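Our consortium's second objective concerns turning raw sequence data into structural hypotheses that experimental partners can test. To show how far this objective has progressed, the report includes one record in full. It was chosen at random from the queue rather than selected for favorable results. The single chain below, 310 residues long, was entered without modification.
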Amino acid sequence: MRLPKGKQEMKHIETTIVALILALTVQSCGDTRKDDARADIAVTILPLKYIVENITGDDFRVDVLVPSGASPETFEPTPKQYIALNEARMIFSTGLIDFENALLSRIEHKERLINLSRGIDLMEGSCSHDHSHAEAAHDAEEHEHAEEEHLHGIDPHIWTSPRELRIMARNAFDAISRQYPDSAKYVEAYRALDERLVRLDAECKRMCDESESRAFVVYHPALTYFARAYGLEQIAVESDGKEPSAKHIARIIDEARAKGVACLLYQSQYPRSAVEIIARDMGVECREIDPLAEDAAQNIIDITRVITGN
């Protein structure tokens, strides 16, 4: 039966509206699928972002728990970060910092946790992180799931040495390649990263070998692995995570003068005013560094130049 002209026009309008709604719905669903394909990866500190992004490029959004300028020692995650962590496809950590162990123990999917310290010859430390590490540090499976029995006094700053950074990159690549075994792109990117870190190691060694001084003074002992790699002595102002006593500072000053130290390094998280007083008494220059900078490789070469005077 043929509808009257007025009703035909109304029917045509209704059909057009329905078609527009369906088109918008399909487009919206398409956009959602596109966003879902860009799965999140989480890392605990900025230097780990450098490793992951140099392997995966811009295929993922990499979320960093501890923001730039913040200290892992006082970091408190937000409820939103807890939710995001449980939704992340992979979570990369050093496995050595207290907040990592406390936070990651609450993650539902333990298989998504990637511990980048696996295989590293860990060193004792006396910094204020009060770090802990599992007995099974060198066992891949046990190390990633151990949460209760820890050894205290492990220095966590493994990302400040090119040699340890290479091991961390290898651990990250192994985890990523397990998720994406057919990705030749990630294989090539990892090889390029590894070659870059090999060259970085060689350049740091050259500068340290040519340096007249074999020691450096740093307020917070964040360069323990770097010092071991190149046969240097790290003299720390901070003692066992506490403010140094007058007696300790006097001893540091005498030692620094005797060993020809040219500058006092301090982290950007510490107030410069307090460090300047010590540097003035030493008769050396005060230089700021940031061991938590995102570009880990460039940061290492910058710190090496400061230490060696290059």
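The partners drew two points from this record. The two ends are 92 Å apart (CA to CA). Strands lie at 40-43, 61-64, 90-93, 113-115, 132-134, 150-152, 215-218, 233-236, 263-267, 285-289. Both points have been shared with the crystallography group to help prioritize constructs.
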